[in-house]
């Protein structure tokens, strides 16, 4: 990538004025269109990350842009002291497509998970439980103090002691270990049906069914965190639809607003009734701009599910051939267009080399190349990316 003074100035000023919390790639992105983003030098990149599963309908989709413009000219924000029509319409849509009963809106996945934790604890108090939450190893639930405690990774927790109490962690996909961990304190079990940040680990069919039965038997709230794996990413609107299992609470964010910040928690009536006026709230959650955009996002995603499944199979087949070719590729894990390619070494250099080739991917859990392309992807995009990946691998 060619450098110029303008790009260097932006990077210099970022280091001067922005708190250093990100290990950034040296690119100043200024435009997005469909599958592509463009930097300040005019270089284009095919986006196989989608803002980490945010731009599921592609960058700057005309209908998203039109919705934002129209709503911004009408009403951007009002307090939740008052009613607003886009919020009610979005809640109705999410309830209808999820099969749950009530929605709460916030601004991010971490906030949605905080709301789910609070609601499950408040609900469980009526049954004399102490509010313990069980989460899974390799999980990721957010960056607030509570959600990093729910996320059993020391690198996210280091330096933030004392952490909130009341969390327990067990191995993913291990029903026996989960059974052993349950006590009369257990209020909720929180699971990502597909662990994204953890390295694209997919829940077993029988495991989730057994978890649902366990929760029913013990009167435990079952929370599915679908912040990353929800909203079309797996080829269905919700990942839980693959399993024939319905949670008591589901959390969403990322693709819900196509880049406009919004999170949602949807819950069954029996559980949601534990919240009453004053129990929880947020200033910006459910504002008209975000909710109107989310409605358009859902409508567009629903039209892309067939393509997601078709391209997901095609992409997986291509990566399986890469797996057969190189002995340092340990495994390909994929569902829909949520794909991980696990290496036997740290993959950060591969991400850099792919960037030089004009492709945006990332590496999670040190060794897993993660691919989360927009759901509008076509075969030629996959062919080009896999060809470049093959070229990079051949030089190792």
Automatic annotation (TrEMBL):
Subcellular location: Cytoplasm
Positions of post-translational N6-(pyridoxal phosphate)lysine modification: 254
Annotated GO MF terms: identical protein binding; N2-acetyl-L-ornithine:2-oxoglutarate 5-aminotransferase activity; pyridoxal phosphate binding
SUPFAM superfamilies documented for this protein: PLP-dependent transferases
CDD domains referenced in this protein's UniProt entry, alphabetically: OAT_like (cd00610)
Residue positions binding N(2)-acetyl-L-ornithine: 143, 282
One term under GO cellular component: cytoplasm
Main localization (coarse): cytoplasm
GO BP field: L-arginine biosynthetic process
Cofactor binding note: Binds 1 pyridoxal phosphate per subunit.
Binding site for pyridoxal 5'-phosphate: 109-110, 140, 225-228, 283
Pathway: Amino-acid biosynthesis; L-arginine biosynthesis; N(2)-acetyl-L-ornithine from L-glutamate: step 4/4
EC numbers, comma separated: 2.6.1.11
Pfam families: Aminotran_3 (PF00202)
Record key words, sorted: Amino-acid biosynthesis, Aminotransferase, Arginine biosynthesis, Cytoplasm, Pyridoxal phosphate, Transferase
Domain of life where this protein originates: Archaea
Cofactor(s) it depends on: pyridoxal 5'-phosphate
Protein family according to the UniProt entry: Belongs to the class-III pyridoxal-phosphate-dependent aminotransferase family. ArgD subfamily.
Subunit-level organization: Homodimer.
Note: May also have succinyldiaminopimelate aminotransferase activity, thus carrying out the corresponding step in lysine biosynthesis.
Alphabetized HAMAP family for the sequence: ArgD_aminotrans_3 (MF_01107)
Name of the protein described by the UniProt record: Acetylornithine aminotransferase
